[in-house]
Design goal:
The mean pLDDT is about 95. The protein has a 5-stranded mixed β-sheet. The protein has a 4-stranded parallel β-sheet with strand order 11-10-13-14, sandwiched between helices. Strands 12-17-16-15 form a 4-stranded mixed β-sheet. It has 3 domains: about 5-80, Ubiquitin-like (UB roll) (Roll); about 145-210, Alpha-Beta Plaits, CATH 3.30.70; about 215-575, Rossmann fold, CATH 3.40.50. The protein is an alpha/beta fold. It has 19 helices and 17 strands. The chain is globular. The longest helix has 22 residues, at about 270-290. Helices cover about 35% and strands about 15% of the residues.
């Protein structure tokens, strides 16, 4: 036994583990997975569900294995007739207050409570009684809250507070009346919820869901008067295969394009093209600020959840934020202006569909700032990766075996820089590749900026361009953004350029990505890393790896936009933001 280890006996087997290890994790060392429901490895311990109970010799009552550390000489029993019965009773009591709508529930077949009930041997409901009943909160643009399916595990509360730093939701009331809701009993629409959807990712049931737009999409597809134009985010191609049983990290770009055509979409473009377009504007905006004494540090603006967060919590630094629209909104604006003119199409006949990894994009699409001069939205509907998976399954499309195809021309070609937009650090890396060549007029040979890659919460680097040092920082997850923004507010930020992504890992960890499978953990870092690796591989294999080298990008500036930051580009590719407070406060 080492100095910091203890010896314990679990189910008759002696093992040596580090002091402070939970019984749950110690048991896993000998191949025993204690059932759990409220536990999540990236969140604080709650011990709320009690499903993970075990017996410890010398202690009268069962203990929660997730929250009980091992001690020297401890003897643990993880399974016995009485333990199994107690666990089953706990799950049966949870089910007693749960709706009986599994077959029509969005999480049917991918519900942790459903899987647990099966594993516990729950075949009947023995504790039928009074059920709670709440109205659904359908007010928000991005997230739906269904308190009737809430099991009070508090994962949503913990991820909102501990990972995102938003604390938009909490528990109210006590006992049977306990419910999870936004503060001050506000609706989602009127609360500080940023729409990131991480509550959906970690919820074990269907208490939180994205607000579906699929019916609106079907209606547009079936209308012969409407031209449906689709785009899909870089991170969608790196994750969509998981919805069809593939392991994480497969690039399904070609199959996604084919699938969009199979469901009836008329034109398919690639958001990676407009990611290149974003870099043209954003790099130019940074250079102008850096060389002419503009507001620094400049902060990226392509993450929808981040932009709503900064409006709520850091409105004083909005002048630091880039005025560039996100790639999604740039693409939508280009299809209803440049593409419509070029193809002689009435923009009112275009229906722009965006397949995104992000629930917050639904809110972005409804922003009044993202409309044309007549008040019509540029983006007509946003569906998440999950929604798109459901749509394909409903049509019986054999996604995995589809023959890959290419996006349509004019707004479809992209560089490797456009692909890495989907992972934390990718926007910054893409911007630096272009900014360096714009400033120096020389070819950048070493284009991979490894210092700003990876899952570290805040990454930084110093880039030397013609003798001038440019200090950059990258943050992902809004709690990390808060650290960087407090420096900006205090006037102590050492950086010139900051990238913020609202979700852990960036878009690859977005709130609209496929649910974790039966043996996976929601928001698992390894899954996020594999998705990011798929995007970096796309970049590595591209002949063109810098946004400004994309010939379709060069063409759109020559024919329509003129140059970055021109009057035309400001009209279609830039926007503004405003301070935002929850109503009633």
């Amino acid at each position: 036994m080492t100095k910091n280890n203890v010896t314990v006996i679990i189910d008759g087997e002696k093992l040596n583990v580090p002091a402070g290890t939970s019984i749950m994790h110690a048991a896993e060392e000998i191949g025993i997975k204690v059932p759990r429901l409220c536990y999540h490895p990236q969140l604080s311990l709650e011990g709320a569900c009690r499903v993970c109970i075990v017996e410890v010799k010398g202690i009268k009552n069962f203990v929660a294995s997730c929250a009980t550390p091992v001690q020297e000489g401890m003897e643990v029993t993880t399974t016995s007739p009485s333990i199994r019965q107690a666990r089953r009773d706990i799950v049966e009591l949870i089910l007693d207050n749960h709706p009986k709508d599994c077959q029509t529930c969005e999480r049917d077949g991918n519900c942790e409570l459903q899987r647990l009930a099966y594993a516990m041997g729950v075949r009947e409901r023995y504790f039928e009684g009074v059920k709670k009943h709440y109205d659904l909160d359908l007010s928000g643009a991005a997230v739906i809250r269904d308190p009737n399916k809430c099991i009070l595990c508090q994962r949503c509360i913990r991820v909102c507070e501990e990972v995102q730093g938003v604390s938009a939701i909490g528990q109210a009331y006590r006992g049977f009346d306990t419910v999870v809701m936004p503060g001050f009993n506000l609706s989602f629409k009127d609360s500080v919820c940023v729409g990131c959807g991480q509550c959906i990712n970690v919820c074990p049931t269907a208490a939180f869901l994205e607000k579906s737009s699929s019916d609106k999409v079907w209606e547009a597809i079936e209308n012969p008067e409407i031209i449906v134009i689709a785009q899909f985010a870089p991170s969608v191609r790196a994750a969509i295969g998981e919805g069809f049983g593939l392991p994480p990290g497969h690039n399904m770009q070609g199959q996604t394009i084919t699938a969009l055509r199979k469901i009836g979409v008329d034109i398919v473009f690639d958001t990676q093209f407009s990611a290149d377009l974003t870099i043209m504007e954003e790099a130019s905006e940074f250079i102008e600020r850096f060389t002419k004494g503009g507001k620094l540090p400049m902060i990226t603006s392509c993450s929808s959840a981040w932009m709503k967060y900064v409006e709520h919590f850091h409105p004083a630094i909005l002048k630091h934020v880039s005025t560039c629209k996100s790639p999604m909104s740039m693409m939508s604006a280009m299809t209803k202006s440049f593409y419509a003119q070029k193809q002689a199409i009435d923009p009112s006949k275009i229906f722009n569909l965006a397949v995104m990894c992000c629930t917050a994009k639904k809110f972005e699409a409804q922003r009044p700032e993202q409309t044309d001069e007549n008040g019509n939205p540029y983006t007509d509907a946003v569906v998440t990766t999950r929604e798109f998976v459901w749509m394909l399954k409903s049509m019986g499309i054999d996604f995995i075996n589809l023959k890959p195809s290419q996006p349509d021309p004019i707004l479809g070609l992209s560089s490797g820089a456009g692909a890495i937009f989907g992972t934390t650090g990718g926007v910054m890396e893409a911007a630096l590749r272009t900014a360096y060549e714009f400033i120096t007029g020389e070819t950048l040979l070493d284009i991979e900026f490894n210092a700003i890659r990876g899952m570290k919460g805040i990454k930084e680097a110093t880039i030397n361009i013609q003798g001038k040092e440019i200090k950059v920082a990258v943050g992902h997850g809004l709690k990390n953004a808060k650290i960087l923004m407090e420096q900006v507010e205090a006037g102590t930020s050492p950086y010139h350029f900051i990238e913020i992504m609202g979700c852990p890992g960036g878009c690859v960890g977005g709130g609209g990505q496929p649910y974790a499978g039966a043996n996976a953990i929601p928001l698992d870092e390894e899954i996020i890393k594999l998705r990011a690796k798929a995007l970096y591989t796309i970049d590595e294999k591209k002949v063109i790896r810098k946004s400004h080298r994309n010939p379709e990008i060069q063409h759109i500036y020559k024919e329509f936009l003129g140059k970055p930051l021109s009057e035309v580009s400001h009209k279609y590719l830039h926007t503004h933001y405003k301070p935002r407070l929850p109503k009633g406060i």
